[in-house]
Automatic annotation (TrEMBL):
GO terms for cellular component: plasma membrane. This is Ni/Fe-hydrogenase subunit HybB-like protein. PANTHER family: POLYSULPHIDE REDUCTASE NRFD, PTHR43044. It is a multi-pass membrane protein. Pfam families: ActD, NrfD. It comes from the Bacteria. It is found in: Cell membrane. The chain crosses the membrane at residues 41-64, 87-107, 119-142, 162-182, 244-264, 284-305, 317-337, 361-380, 387-409, 429-452, 548-571, 591-613. Its main location: membrane. InterPro entries: ActD (IPR021776), NrfD-like (IPR005614). Keywords: Cell membrane, Membrane, Transmembrane, Transmembrane helix. The keyword Transmembrane applies. It comes from Methylobacterium brachiatum.
Amino acid sequence: MSGALFGGQPAGPLIGPEETLQGIGGAVAAIPLTHPRNRRWWIAFAGAVALLGVFGFTLGYLLYAGPGVWANNNAVVWALDIASYDWWIGVASGSLLVSAVLLLLGAEWRGAVNRIAETLALLATASAGLYPIIHLGRPWFFFWNLPYPNTYNLWPQFRSPLLWDAIDIVAFLVICVSLWFIGMLPDLATLRDRAFVEAMRQSDAKARTRKLALLRAQIYGIVASGWRGSAAHWQIWVQAYRTVALLGVLLVVSVQTGASVMLAGSLMPGWHSTLLPVSFLVNAVYSGVGVTAAIVVLIRIVYGLDALVSVRHLDVLGRLLLCLGCASAYCYAAEYFDTFLNGDPEARGVLVRRMTGDHALVSWTAILGLVLPAQVLWSARARTAPLVLAAVGLLVAAGAYADHVMVLVVTLTQDFLPSSRLPYGPDPWGIATFAGSLGLFLTLLLLFLRYLPAVSIIESRRLALARAPGTEAAAREAASRATLRPEENPGPAPLWGVSATFASQSDLAAALQAVSSISPPDQVHLDGHGPVPMPRTLRALGLEGRSILPYALAGALLGGAGFYAMCVYATAYDYVFLIGGRPRLSWPSFVVPSISFAMMTGCIAIHLALLVLNRLPRLNHPAFNIPGFLRASDDRFFLSAEARGDRFDAARFERRLTSLPVEAGRPLEIRRIPR
């Protein structure tokens, strides 16, 4: 996909040919399990916590003295507070959109990027979510924006952009959490199994940290929700992951265009432009890709993940930044050209003040930061230089922040009424608030890097199977050397079923096809387990027809229609109050929050369907009693045959498996599993 999209000669392989399923899991899982570069992490964490302390102190003073400490005035009611919110939500939107689009397009190289992008989207949303609350003046009454029964029988004003922000940020947070958790669920199972092996090793060695190791394994086991890598699990997981990504794309477009239409729908010079929604969306994606590229480079350098985050990944990220930089330059050129050619005097005056007025430094920082740094990436050498790519990403992020300040402050300082024109200058408390929110973001990011997989193990393994031909060949060679060990049911314990171990998915699928004819559904339940999605196993099991889409569609339609009906009822019938000259049945004002609410309820429906259809969480499934089953999240594939009644002939089942040829489904090992 990357070659078709960007063209040119590739900078190198996406993944090393020597990478194996076990090696990929070991390289990524070693970071949260062994904590390499421990001293560097503690130094960075101390700095982030210091900034977080600044945030806490600033918020305390803000609650004591009020929002006036930000130096806002009657003219410039929105300054660094809303600019910071717009910037954070822009970074979140860009990161979420990049991850979702790469997933929907099936880009092979997404494994090194999507986990970081999803994490940045979640953390940036958390940082952004604080600003709409703390800028209210009395933030402890933030829940007044929510539709809930109260003693005054009042409704929130659904035509107000403040309510749109409240619904948008909640919906955005729900989708970010869902996409992040669903994508990480199989990787959490890998951490669970590796942590359990390490806990058992320390327990046998009587190590002093054995209790801590066991506690860590238990925590990973709980958050993994009993994931077993079942073929049915993988089928629903793939559908849920992609569907939530689609909802995320729709929500990003809704949030960014909704916020910009709110400005463009006004008559303020500099805002009243049809190009504003496009430039908002472009610069949001641009800043998200820039921050993602900088963090990817940081992780690659610090943790030595050159084999998984290759030069080819850096090259593709550089090309993305270059394309978005050209799009941003076009938006600026179109705005200036159209305004000076066809705009009114007030709009032209805004552009002149941006370039020569009191805030010219901010304006030129925005223009130069968003346009010039990316042009360096026309050079292939610059695109594949990690430090250059990270520097460009950070400059783009700084330019995007300056752009938000420029759009808000320059317009608000001088409107149509000379009597209401007031100057504005940034205040140290506003700067400290943004620096503190950056500390919150960095603190959460460092905790993520310490305890969770920074690179998607699943996507990297899928890429290895597709691009490294030696992976499956090595597995087949191991299978040819293995010795079959059919074992009798130990002792008088009742039989749960039979398990078989395989080195590859193709062998598992061949074995399932061979035994399905002697395994009626009323006698045995067949399933397959493995460390990656298994489409061939699904076909062998006949499970291809299941779909999660009806649940997503029903959840989105019911949620969106219900919220829209509530808006109509509250505004047109129960709580009639004119605002902003809008009519009571102001359907465009109702559509914006209704779409966001529909995306949120659809996401919740998908998440619940994923758990219910896969019967998760279940932490004590009998499949965990299969010897060596922990490798189902590593490099082995398992067939499980659960007996249903006394008519299941385990001996016949085992004979059929042992009769298979090595190259067509012969298992490495066969076991009988007691209940």
